[in-house]
Amino acid sequence: MGKFVIKRFKNGEYYFNLLSDNLQIILTSQINSSKSACLRGIDLVKNSCSYENYERKQTSDCKYYFILKVPNGKVIGKSEIYSSKAGMENVIQSVKKNGNNTHVIEEEPYF
């Protein structure tokens, strides 16, 4: 089962990664000013990941990534860069699978 991992920057801001079953990062959040805002972002992922809220993108060098948004258009998170469209689509399926039935842990800050 995947999981959300909350991390804190030295300046006190937070972000989270959603990890797949094999502990690969499949989604990274926007930067949040507080832990509570970060937790709200996780709730948004849990409530939005099953729907088609994925904006598929292509880089200038023909690689692929996606952005997960809530229905009002606010960005929740972004994927890594993938060399193929199929790879990106597989990760979207993994977000749908892991995003709404995962647990949350907080890592100690590195500073």
Descriptive notes:
It is a single chain. It is built from two helices and seven strands, in the order E-E-E-H-E-E-E-H-E. By secondary structure, it is an alpha+beta fold. The longest helix is centred in the middle third of the chain and has 14 residues, at 35-48. The relative contact order is 0.26. The model has no long low-confidence stretch (mean pLDDT 91).
Brief overview, please?
With 111 residues, the protein is an alpha+beta fold. 25% of the residues lie in helices and 32% in strands.
User: Roughly what percent helix?
Assistant: 25-40%
Q: How many individual helices? A: 2
The major β-sheet equals: 7 strands, mixed
Give the end-to-end Cα distance, rounded to a whole number of Å.
Answer: 29 Å
The succession of helices and strands, N to C, reads: EEEHEEEHE
Estimated structural class = alpha+beta
Task: Please supply descriptive tags for the structure shown above.
single chain; 111 residues; alpha+beta; 7-stranded mixed beta sheet; 7 strands; 25% helix
Question: How would you summarize the topology of this molecule?
Answer:
Elements: E1 3-8, E2 14-19, E3 25-29, H1 35-48, E4 54-58, E5 64-69, E6 75-78, H2 85-98, E7 103-106
Parallel strand pairs: 1-7
Antiparallel strand pairs: 1-2, 2-3, 3-6, 4-5, 5-6
